[in-house]
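Exercise 3.2. Students should predict the tertiary structure of the chain below and write it as structure tokens, then compare their answer with the key that follows.

Predict this chain's 3D structure.
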Amino acid sequence: MDVPPTVVRAASSSTDILAVANSPFLWLCALGVFAVIAVQSLIYVKAARRAAPSISMSTRELNRSLRAGAVASIGPSMAVVLVAIALLALFGTPAVLMRIGLIGSAAAETASASIASSTMGATLGGPDYTQQVFAVAFIAMSISGGMWMLATLLLTPVLKRGGNKLSQVNPAVMLIIPGAALLGAFSMIAVTELPKSGVHAVTVLVSAAVMGGLLLLARRLHAHWLKEWALGIAIFVGLTVAFIAHTA
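Answer key:
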């Protein structure tokens, strides 16, 4: 039995976003994303264990590296959780899980969804944010995230070839460039936050001071576990300071 067009239009104009945002199909897509992530993680760990003997890396050092990576991810994951909570009302649980499970930028993809909504004469999360607008915004956000993955897939081999050529010319260059790139990227992120408000500036400065102090303390005490937890502690302290400064 065909559904009358008037019924379809009435359904698409509904503002009950969660009715479609929590559909079984989207839940299957979210579970599929996390299944792929789990398989990739197992493959990477297995490859690391297989390659460790060739670089004279002991099992103990490998396990410590894996543990350090797992612990260091706790701090940044807290920020991801906060972003996810903020997006739940707009996109529903499955869409948010897919977003945080893939490479990309929550700010960039939310901006894409906002622009897509505005092209339909609606505001993201506003009273005119209907199921139809949600569908268009979600597609725009998914395409935005997909382009991050496509760019990574295409550019990684190119950058790898460039890195191999540089290492042949001067091996020391490849020791400097990755560290400089990371330092520059995170420095730019921090610098862009400073002029936003006094709360932002205090949060950045306190976080930097805590991180530096913990690393210095870990070196003097030879406490490797403190290096692993330094990032998470610095982020937690920064969030606490930001909350206190904002409510003061």
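Discussion points: The radius of gyration is 23 Å. The chain is about 85% helix and 0% strand.
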